[in-house]
Recover the amino acids of this structure.
């Protein structure tokens, strides 16, 4: 296994993991908020923010689905080395990584069950750009209104209708990170 | 149901400070070191590793020191610490046939290949307190040594298996269920039961095993083999593309041989019980094998004679001493409101009873 | 065995020796061999974790979870590009780093020197410990006497 696929993990494990987790927590708790996360250097096409999320949140017990946009031998090796997470089909995934187009159709992903709504997938959506403008959001964690440059509206409105079931999303672009939990109302 | 109360922070801080003093004891007496506990209380260390489910002798020694020798408290500390460590993966199943044995005996075959190797056992001591040990600084003379043969020792049950006299073991899923990841749920297959037993309280498993011998369950167990020694731990490393040894551990293994009556379709065969425990933990390994065998009554087509050791829910729910003490000790927590309502109820009932008696007396 | 198989077996053997070595001894031998650490980059900073050990029911049957063991692991890349992996039993980050560097230096062509300076001494010491236990165990092997019937001898 060549070294270019292995470097770029957290340099200071517990410290960096804690910072990454805090960013993940903040963005999911306050939809519309954008955090910077530059602690990881995964191989292309994975962004630093997405890479840091995977390092912080994934391990041997969290199956990951790589969408076609991110189906890359180098990335697979990097994920395997740093997390040990098994790579699976969309239906079995706890996390899914890809561009929005490659992740669609998103109805393949787990939305939890009535007894265990948490047993749903978290989508890590890689974007060309991520701004706190565009689609208007309101709901838990948002004071009044917020805005986020979502790739579309309909899918997230459908998802909100399934609450308390549904998937949850992170949006990543370079070292920028935002979150969209299933509880957020997305205005058309 | 307990209730939350506030206050007592200063009392708690002061209690902890006094605990530290009590733990240390008389400062004129030398302090216990981790190395001393690890070296000289090895069997306590073994128990804490087994029930804490974490093989790390220095950590177990530290837990014993911190717990002032309370081994269940030490197990609690180890279990808690284990949750802070990431899990890299799982080993390949250990090869106990390759064990480098310190001790290896069989109660079923006198002249087994490799012989009866007693090891550093208490078995033949006379249980007389040795007051010479109270004096310190008298290191024992080096133990006698004899040229050791090369090679490993085969399992005794292999000989029975060759003649088809003992039930063969069946393989199972490569990834067994894991009590450290999911709560105990029934039906519990044999791998899950074995995990529960190996980390279960030694006293409980011993008593359950004893109960099977006293007629609560009809198995007559023979110790086919008992071995204590080191085995290598091997794991596949994806980034290397091959498996490597990660270290070695001391294990105690007990295979019991029990009778089975056969059926219309099956000729009589011996059946097995199995115990495998971290460290030198002989009593626990034998107990585990007996209870394992008792819990297999259903898959072996035997009758449930109502023995507690056959009741899988009773055995597995009560085997874990951290769970047990957790619920037991919770009754120390404030239950003031519950009790207050009990108190008022009992007073009212007594008042009504006395009023009733007074009325009857008047009539 | 092909050249690759031989290389793998050799690497397995040295990684096994390093994994089982007493941490302090491993670090001391490595410090003596390479007082100045070779230039390297961390692929994986030393990390303490666990490995779940498995046994088999009846030593041959279905696998079951026996309990976890502490392990420390590390991965490095030398400036030459050689990659080394270190896994040591227990909780010692310095030992894991030393093991990874030793593995990398071996991959980088220093096998003979390291064999002489580090691996052979570790193996010899482990073998001596094993022998000390094996000879004591052998001394506790029971020699049964058969009871001879007949006249009092």
């Amino acid at each position: 296994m060549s070294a270019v696929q292995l470097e770029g993990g957290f340099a200071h494990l517990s410290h960096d993991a804690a910072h990454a987790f805090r960013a993940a927590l903040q963005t999911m708790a306050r939809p519309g908020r954008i955090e910077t996360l530059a602690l990881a250097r995964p191989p292309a096409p994975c962004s630093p923010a997405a890479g840091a999320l995977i390092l912080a949140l994934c391990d041997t017990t969290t199956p990951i689905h790589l969408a076609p946009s991110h189906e890359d031998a180098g990335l697979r090796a990097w994920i395997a080395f740093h997390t040990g997470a098994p790579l699976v089909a969309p239906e079995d995934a706890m996390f899914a990584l890809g561009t929005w187009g490659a992740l669609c159709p998103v109805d393949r992903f787990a939305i939890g069950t009535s007894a265990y709504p948490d047993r749903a997938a978290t989508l890590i959506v890689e974007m060309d750009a991520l701004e706190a403008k565009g689609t208007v959001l309101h709901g838990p964690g948002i004071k009044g209104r917020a805005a986020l440059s979502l790739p579309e509206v309909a899918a997230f409105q459908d998802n909100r209708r399934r609450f308390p079931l549904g998937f949850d999303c992170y949006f990543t672009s370079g070292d920028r990170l935002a979150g969209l939990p299933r509880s957020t109302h997305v205005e058309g | 149901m307990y209730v939350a109360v506030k206050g007592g922070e200063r009392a708690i801080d002061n209690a902890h400070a006094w605990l530290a003093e009590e733990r240390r004891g008389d400062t004129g007496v030398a302090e216990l070191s981790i190395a001393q506990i690890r070296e000289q209380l090895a069997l306590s260390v073994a128990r804490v590793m087994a029930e804490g489910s974490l093989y790390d002798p220095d950590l177990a020694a530290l837990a014993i020191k911190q717990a002032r020798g309370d081994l269940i408290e030490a197990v609690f500390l180890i279990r808690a610490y284990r949750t802070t460590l990431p899990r890299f993966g799982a080993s390949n199943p250990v090869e106990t046939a390759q064990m480098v044995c310190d001790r290896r005996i069989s109660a079923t075959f006198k002249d087994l290949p490799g012989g009866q190797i007693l090891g550093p056992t208490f078995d033949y001591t006379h249980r007389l307190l040795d007051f010479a040990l109270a004096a310190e600084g008298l290191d024992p003379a080096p133990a006698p040594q004899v040229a050791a043969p090369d090679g490993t020792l085969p399992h005794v049950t292999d000989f029975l298996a060759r003649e088809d006299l003992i039930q063969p073991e069946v393989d199972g899923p490569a990834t067994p269920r894991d009590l450290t990841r999911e709560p105990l749920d029934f039906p519990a297959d044999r791998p899950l039961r074995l995990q529960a037993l190996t980390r279960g309280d030694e006293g409980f498993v011993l008593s359950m095993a004893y109960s099977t011998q006293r007629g609560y369950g009809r198995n007559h167990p023979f110790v086919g083999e008992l071995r204590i020694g080191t085995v290598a731990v091997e794991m596949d490393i994806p980034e290397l593309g091959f498996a490597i040894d990660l270290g070695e551990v001391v294990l105690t293994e007990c295979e019991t041989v029990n009778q089975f009556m056969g059926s219309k379709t099956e000729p009589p065969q011996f059946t097995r019980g199995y115990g495998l425990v971290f460290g030198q933990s002989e009593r626990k390994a034998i107990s585990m094998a007996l209870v394992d065998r008792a819990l297999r009554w259903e898959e072996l087509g035997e009758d449930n004679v109502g023995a507690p050791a056959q009741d899988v829910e009773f055995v597995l729910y009560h085997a874990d001493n951290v769970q047990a003490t957790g619920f037991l000790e919770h009754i120390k927590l404030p239950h003031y409101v519950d009790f207050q309502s009990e108190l008022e109820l009992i007073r009212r009932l007594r008042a009504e009873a006395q009023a009733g008696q007074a009325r009857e007396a008047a009539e | 065995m092909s050249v690759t198989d031989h290389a793998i077996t050799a690497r397995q053997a040295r990684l096994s020796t390093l994994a089982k070595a007493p941490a302090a001894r491993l670090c001391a031998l490595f410090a003596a061999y390479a007082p100045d650490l070779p230039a390297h980059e961390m692929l994986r900073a030393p990390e303490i974790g666990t490995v779940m050990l498995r046994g088999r029911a009846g030593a041959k049957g279905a696998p079951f979870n026996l309990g976890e063991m502490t392990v420390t692991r590390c991965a490095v890349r030398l400036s030459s590009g050689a990659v080394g992996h270190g896994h040591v039993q227990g909780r010692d980050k310095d030992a894991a780093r030393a093991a990874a560097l030793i593995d990398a230096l071996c991959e980088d062509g220093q096998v003979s020197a390291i064999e002489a300076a580090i691996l052979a001494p570790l193996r010899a010491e482990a073998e001596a410990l094993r022998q000390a236990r094996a000879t004591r165990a052998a001394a506790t092997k029971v020699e049964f006497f058969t009871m001879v019937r007949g006249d009092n001898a």
